[in-house]
Amino acid sequence: MTNTTTLRASGGPNWSHRLKDAGFWAEWAALVGLIVLVIVFQALNPTFLSPGNIASMLVAAAILIILAVGQTFVIATAGIDLSIASVMTLGAVVFGQMYEAGQGLGVASLMAVVSAGAAGAVNGVIVARGKITDFIVTLGMLSAASGLALILSDGKPVTVIDPLLLRLSTSGIGIFGWSFVIAIVVAVAAHVVLFHTRFGTHLLATGGSPESATAMGISTARIKIAVYLISGLLAGLGAILLVGRIGAAEPAANTAFLLNSVAAVVLGGVSLFGGRGTIVGPFFGALLLIALVNGLTLLGVSQFYQPLAVGIVVVLAALLMRFQN
Questions:
Q1: Which residues span the membrane (predicted)?
Q2: Is-above-0.85 flag for pTM?
């Protein structure tokens, strides 16, 4: 009896059956979609896969990957963080204010992460201890963080010119800019935490069934506080990379980061109902969204149509998720 026959007889995976399963495509929608986009855009515009354009896309994807990782931790507990982009803006403004005051790159970076992490912790405490739905809490923080950023900066951007910060966006290892390398490190660390630590097990259990998790002795309140804290800290890291990329601390929040961070998680196959998580999926989901916008730009498609294209892709991915087991 052949190995294939033995495998089938023993109930092993049947790849022909798997390929016919919509759930399989839901799990790998981001990677499959990315491959399809690369083939199509390269055929339509040969400069799409040029080293310079690839490097540019990877740098652009770094911040989104980091935010998507933070969003994944929250969504895996059946929550959502609507404030992540505004918290990142707050962190960027704090960075700019500290740098302008002559505190140096190290102190400015630390305060950016701490301030964003504090905002995330506030979200977590109110959700977990105050028993208020995450949608309302993070929506309120979205407004509060945006307002605080405007107050601290007086509505004015702060130019930040620092050689070390500039190198994060302009140099690296081949086509991999340092900011993208940082994003990879964050993604790998998040994967280890989520799937190879007790905290990760408790996190997924909390998202799957809070009542059962509590019965097993898991402090679901602490888990929820922790995931919003992680989301805030990663938003602070994203703020540093954002300042380095644009060369200024802008007080205006970019809502596209919020929408795209959620979109990357959905494309990555993470269940919006909690209990299921992956880091690889949102990683490729972020790359797919950046590749989509970049490819449309190279083809001369108006920016007005680009959000429409992103929305269609996300809705299709959400429809596929219905077929997940």
A1: 24-44, 56-75, 82-99, 105-128, 135-153, 173-195, 225-246, 252-273, 280-298, 304-323
A2: yes
